[in-house]
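A quick aside before the break. I want you to see a complete sequence-to-structure record at least once, exactly as it would be stored in a machine-readable document. Don't worry about memorizing anything.
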Amino acid sequence: MSLTLKIALSPLLVVQAIRTRARLPRLPEPAGRRHGVVGTGPALQLLIAGDSSAAGVGVARQSDALATQLASRLARDCGVRVDWQLLARSGLTTAQTLQLIQREAPRADLAVVVTGVNDVVEQVPSHHAMSARESLANWLRNAAGVQHVVFAPLPPVHHFPGLPQPLRWVAGADAKRHNSAMARWVRSRGDVSVVDMEMPLNRGVMAADGFHPGEPVYRYCANAIAAHLASQVWPRLRGLGPTSSNQETTA
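That is the input. The structure line, written in tokens, reads:
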């Protein structure tokens, strides 16, 4: 969309944004463990980091959220023993996600990063968001031992039922612009990638607020990310760690 049109709509967009923030219920982060071990085979350390969608807002239990389902699917698809950790908090932008993982100083072989919607909400320019993604990827590679960083694309915000029009349309156009910038960036590097996925969103698959994912969306995203890791990332990174015992540990 043109900048001129966005500026023309800005008074209405501001009013809609304020009213939407006040109207939407504040959903809690789900209860449950944020780390675990699942599967048997070669050891693989997995970090999931990001915002409310990484944290699992929209479901009641972590077992129904992204991280737990992703770890289980990855262990099955790759035949590995996944030692996983979740570092996520509602409301984080990409730059704030970097600050969180720098404070926690995790170690991992692979990292999955879910951020971007709050960059759109906070009107972070796409080039600033991309600079934050690059800093995040570089820190994970250089300080956390991560061999490959996988980014989830921004969701189709233009389908969020909890947002009124034209705010939904404008935010969706911003999200598409961020995704386009990310796609161009990952083509310049071999140690980062973006998952190719876009699930159609409606009230039937989303949380009660019409803004956060419901369990069907988390299940779809976990399957898509695991399939990406299993087919495009793990084959290049086999032999990262020692072979574990055959005793199976559940998340």
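Two observations worth writing down. The helical segments are 3-23, 52-55, 66-78, 94-104, 117-121, 126-143, 167-186, 215-237. Residues 142 and 190 are 15 Å apart (CA to CA). We'll return to this after the break.
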